[in-house]
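Quick one, T. Sequence first:
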Amino acid sequence: MDNNNKLFVGNLAYTVSEADLRELFSPYGEVTSASVPVDRESNRPRGFAFIEMSSQAGAEAAIKALDGHELSGRNLKVNISQPKPRRDRY
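Structure tokens:
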């Protein structure tokens, strides 16, 4: 499966919501999903998010426009999401 339309958004302020991200990314194409992971113990946002765009072109446009963009006083880091490395559990 080609994942070049799934983006990792880092350096997020804890106050940024999924709705905020959908609004920010939608000018660059259809946002098919937005998720802000929360910490299991504190139930607070973890400071990053995943955005899935409907097309690779939209994802690339969003990266060009929003990488380094200031949102809530923080400069966003936006790039193609990399698969999480598998860890063997013992």
